[in-house]
Design a protein that fits this description.
Elements lengths: L1 E5 L9 E5 L3 H12 L8 H18 L12 H15 L8 H23 L27
Antiparallel strand pairs: 1-2
Helix pairs in contact: 1-4, 2-4, 3-4
Length: about 150
């Protein structure tokens, strides 16, 4: 999915740029860029551009519709409901900047989780299988002989 966004900065004014679903590294870079936004120093145009970009990426990564949620666990259904809510309720043009800022951060968090969920089944770098989870070591002195 590719959306065309008009940039509002002086360097890119009027030139459309493509925002594609992109690779995993692109997704993580976009999430980090958006999460680095600060409310007092980020312009409304940057926030609006981030909303369009993130909504396109989240829409490309979400794989289930609410009708398919019957066989999911409660946590997965809750997450899918959150994703659906974020996609179906973008901020209104007259929304305050802090509302848009909050929406952008929520989209970035959801996008990061969706990207991580999609990575679980994929092979790691250079075709190696994914790393097993780290073993959980007991904390010394807790629970032993009490």
């Amino acid at each position: 999915m590719t959306d065309v966004v008009k940039t509002s900065s002086a360097s890119g004014a009027g030139r459309p740029r493509a925002v594609a679903a992109g690779g995993k590294a692109d997704v993580e870079q976009e999430v980090r860029r958006v999460l680095a936004f600060r409310l007092g120093t980020t312009t409304r145009a940057e926030l609006d551009s981030a909303v369009i970009s993130l909504r396109g990426r989240v829409g490309a990564l979400v794989g289930h519709s609410p009708a398919e949620a019957e066989g999911m666990s409660g946590a997965d259904r809750g997450f899918l409901l959150e994703v659906t809510h974020l996609l179906d309720n973008p901020p209104a043009p007259e929304a305050l900047s802090h509302e848009v800022y909050s929406h952008v951060r929520a989209l970035a968090r959801v996008l990061r989780k969706l990207a991580a969920m999609n990575r679980v089944g994929d092979a790691g770098p250079s075709g190696s299988p994914p790393r097993p989870p780290l073993p959980v070591r007991p904390v010394p002195g807790r629970g032993a002989g009490r």
